Amino acid sequence: MFQIKTMNQISAKGLERLPGERYTVGDDVANEDAILVRSAKLHDYVFPPNLWAIARAGAGTNNIPVERCSEAGIIVFNTPGANANAVKELVICALLAASRDILGGSAWVREQAQAGADVAAVVEKGKSAFVGPELYRKTLGVIGLGAIGALVANIALSLGMEVYGYDPFLSVDAALRLDRHIRVVKDVTELYRVADYLTIHMPYTDQTRHTINADTLAAMKDGVRVVNLARGELVDDQAMLAALESGKVARYVTDFPNNTVTLAKGVVAFPHLGASTPESEDNCAVMAAEELRDFLENGNVRNSVNLPDVIMERSGALRLCLMHRNIPAILANVTLQLSNDGVNVENMTNKSKGEYAYTIVDTGSVVEQRVLDHIARIPGVLRTRVIR
């Protein structure tokens, strides 16, 4: 039986993918083989020795100590694209909220009613305070053209907007998802120069911190409207406040409110609603559970943030999975240990991602424990796992 510990409330549709005859699942599980988590912070969590994998039911993994996991031989999964449609729909709302003071107007109408005014009469006189431009024929700049950014870019075209996109890591698959009318630029300053609206869809890392800062804001058009439903730290709050004060930024819509920006004039703050739909929570949970199941039962890796995708059909009598450093001679040493014991390699695949690599070896016969112990002691091997 595999032991799966849940952190936060995980959608029942996801948990259904882990059948009870093979999995014990719950928030009270101890010495777990894997963790299913949403937003719970694991940076101070003490990993049990039996922990093999953590699956985040969502795209971001800032709540997980990925580097510590890598060094411990723990694979971290996420669910890219599972919540993309939910975020895309909220971006449409954010663009409208950035353009027209819908929320302010609604609050003002309620205030009039509460004060006893004749609402039907006063709204005609007061509505001019909430006027804003249309999206039609305006230019949208999309930074990050992954699962969410591509959907946003495509739907913005159907709103009649001209769309510029920028992504220094644009993959072939991502490029194929983009409508041919989207102008993909190689220099982000070209996007800043033309965008009436700007939306950010990129992960938060040390390298992307404060992507929107005083310098990048200065390169933008006066009166630009900025939407950030990706991560709060991508925007330098102090620089944004200064840009709002000067009029450089007409409005800033963020899904990551804090005490610094929330009450500032021109800020529309959502309570982290990006993926807050029942459909999104179901999709993320199902995807995370399926990733864990394929890994635990077959050793396959899909959508890992610290390892490459490594998928191989089962063959042979035994499957050996190794997480190791991306250094020379490890594969040669593994096959040497096996051949010295007369074990034939039926199939093998290996891929690397940065400093780490993952290898799957299917053997034609059962491998003795002493050979497995020798392989585990090869310099650079972080962890080995046998699936029979």
Structure write-up:
The longest helix has 21 residues, at about 280-300. The protein has helices spanning about 10-15, 65-70, 85-100, 100-115, 120-125, 145-160, 170-175, 190-195, 215-220, 235-245, 280-300, 330-340, 370-375; strands at about 1-5, 25, 35, 55, 75, 140-145, 160-165, 185, 195-200, 225-230, 250-255, 265-270, 320-325, 345-355, 355-365, 380-385. It has 13 helices and 16 strands. Helix 3 packs across helix 6. The strands form three sheets. The protein has a seven-stranded parallel sheet with strand order 8-7-6-9-10-11-12, with helices on both faces. It has a five-stranded parallel sheet with strand order 2-1-3-4-5. Strands 14-15-13-16 form a four-stranded antiparallel sheet, with helices on one face. The chain is about 35% helix and about 20% strand. The model has no long low-confidence stretch (mean pLDDT about 95). It has three domains: about 1-80 and about 280-305, Rossmann fold; about 85-270, NAD(P)-binding Rossmann-like Domain (Rossmann fold, 3-Layer(aba) Sandwich); about 305-388, 2-Layer Sandwich (Alpha-Beta Plaits), CATH 3.30.70. With about 400 residues, the chain is of the alpha/beta class.
